[in-house]
Design brief:
With about 60 residues, the chain is mainly alpha-helical. The protein has a domain of about 35 residues. The protein contains one helix and no strands. One of its GO terms (biological process) is protein stabilization. GO terms for molecular function: DNA binding. InterPro entries: Huntingtin-int_K (IPR052617). This is Dna-binding enhancer protein-like protein.
Length: about 60
């Protein structure tokens, strides 16, 4: 009967590992999304800054 118990433990361990893997995937996806959003914000801020600099240079002329 010990062999059957061992098989059940492996199934439970396998399910736990699958759940942990899915949770980790969701977490890393969330981090990647946040990094992408951060990059977009930085690009937008750089664009706004460049535009305001161009406006100031145009006023000087």
């Amino acid at each position: 009967m010990e062999g059957a118990d061992e098989g059940i433990e492996r199934l439970v361990d396998s399910k736990d590992l699958q759940q942990q893997s899915k949770a980790l995937d969701k977490l890393t996806d969330h981090v990647e999304d946040r990094q992408l959003n951060s990059t977009r914000v930085q690009e937008a801020m750089a664009s706004i800054y460049a535009s305001s600099e161009a406006d100031l240079n145009a006023m000087r002329l």
